[in-house]
Amino acid sequence: MEQWLDKAMQGVDPDSPDAFLHIFMNLMGMVPWAALFWWNVAFVAVGALIGWWRGRLLEGIVWAAVLGPLGWIVVSLRPRPKPAAVPPPLPRKHRT
């Protein structure tokens, strides 16, 4: 923890008005953004696959993007959509 605080406070004057911004930017610089991006892409891909399998592709993508792996559970537990009622075809007209 001490090392993280040292990295966060590196080059920051605690008495300056923008000290919070500098500390925040130092902390954001320590976040592994590339790994987080690729994990999120994997979560959305699996969510899309589960959503496609359950007949809810868009919901699978959205839930996985918002909740990650927990979105997979949400999509998996929702019932399959009922097919829309389609009226019977009209009779053909006879040529006379």
Short description:
The protein has 96 residues and is mainly alpha-helical.
Can you offer a commentary on this structure?
- It is a single chain.
- The protein is an all-alpha fold.
- The protein has 2 domains: 1-31, no CATH class; 32-80, no CATH class.
- The protein has 5 helices and no strands.
- The protein starts with a helix and ends in a 19-residue tail after the last helix.
Strands, count: 0
Helix content estimate? 55-70%
| Count of helical stretches | 5
Task: Sketch the major β-sheet.
Answer: none
* Structural domain tally: 2
Distance between the first and last residues' Cα: 90 Å
Please specify the SSE layout and strand pairing.
Elements: H1 2-8, H2 19-29, H3 33-54, H4 57-67, H5 69-77
Transmembrane segments: 33-54, 60-77
Keywords: Membrane, Transmembrane, Transmembrane helix
